[in-house]
Amino acid sequence: MKATAEKIRQEMAKVLHLNIDAIKDEYPLKTLVAESFLLIELVIELQDTFDIIISQDELPKIETVANLIEMIISKSK
Amino acid sequence: MEAMKITESERWLLSFYRVSEINGAQFFGRLAKNMKDKKIQYDLTKHFADESQHAWLWTKCLGDLNMDPINVMESYQDQYVAAVGLPTNMMEVLAITQVFERRVIGQYGVHRGLKDINPYVAATLDLIMEDEKWHIEWITQSLKEMETKFTKEVVISTLKKYHEADQAVYEKTLKEHGEHLKELMDKKAFKAW
Ligand SMILES: [Fe+2]
Ligand SMILES: [Fe+2]
């Protein structure tokens, strides 16, 4: 699936059981997903959905929701 | 079988194994819930079921020896996460699991080799080791298949990274919980393989 900010947010809301409005661009990912394993579940699910690869080394680069969305869009063809 | 006594150190070790099996089960269980790759999901679910069963077998083994498990707070996996962080994609999950499973098999093998091993512990290890062979097999196979998507170089370098972390974690564990393992290692009571 080709990634758009809207689709990514929808997917995030689904995995995190949150309302889509609760996923704000400026939110630090670690605040939104406090439990580290849930973060991994989320990242794996997003990779599955948008057919991309995010490696462990790239994770520190993702600080906010906006960073995550940008990275997925840039990797998604 | 007569319930021969085991030492407090061995009780601690069996409790540590038990917690590590539970953590393994929880990790695979969570990942297996939703997956696109149905072949991996199938094997991962079986792997989850096996590790749950192993946790039960250690609990039962301690029970048969009239002992309760000691509440061990930190598992081997926790130390992995502290050393290298959580894996981020399925290839990394499988790579870290392969390294971990090899470590477990090595440790269980050493334990099984004790000359005066308690028969309940021996029987439990034999049951678990049967499953462990398949764990290594399916993961090795799946990692091979992932080379297409991730490239062989990346798979190899990821394995190497986790191998190094595993070595460091094992040395740390020996340092911190040495007294429990030392008894096992120092006995020089291993059967000739
Ligand atoms: Fe196991
Ligand atoms: Fe295993």
What this model shows, in words?
The complex is a heterodimer of chains A (77) and B (193). Chain A has a single domain, classed as ACP-like (Non-ribosomal Peptide Synthetase Peptidyl Carrier Protein, Chain A). Chain A has four helices and no strands. The longest helix of chain A has 15 residues, at 36-50. Chain A is mainly alpha-helical. Helices cover 55% and strands 0% of the residues of chain A. With 193 residues, chain B is an all-alpha fold. Helix content of chain B is 78%, strand content 0%. In chain B, helix 3 crosses helix 6 (152-176), helix 4 (90-112) runs antiparallel to helix 5 and helix 6 (152-176) packs across helix 7 (178-186). The chains are: A mainly alpha (77), B mainly alpha (193). The site of one fe (ii) ion has 5 residues of chain B, from helix 4 and helix 5.
The name CATH uses for the topology of chain A is: Non-ribosomal Peptide Synthetase Peptidyl Carrier Protein, Chain A
Average pLDDT taken over every residue of chain B: 89
Taking the alpha carbons of the first and last residues of chain A, their distance comes to 8 Å
The CATH class of chain A is Mainly Alpha
What's the CATH architecture of chain A? Orthogonal Bundle
Whole-number mean pLDDT of chain A: 93
Share of β-strand residues of chain B: under 5%
Number of helices of chain B: 7
CATH C-level class of chain B is Mainly Alpha
CATH topology of chain B, anyone?
Ferritin
* CATH homologous superfamily heading of chain B: Ferritin, core subunit, four-helix bundle
Percent helix of chain B: over 70%
Overall structural domain count of chain A: 1
Determine Rg of chain B (CA atoms, Å). 17 Å
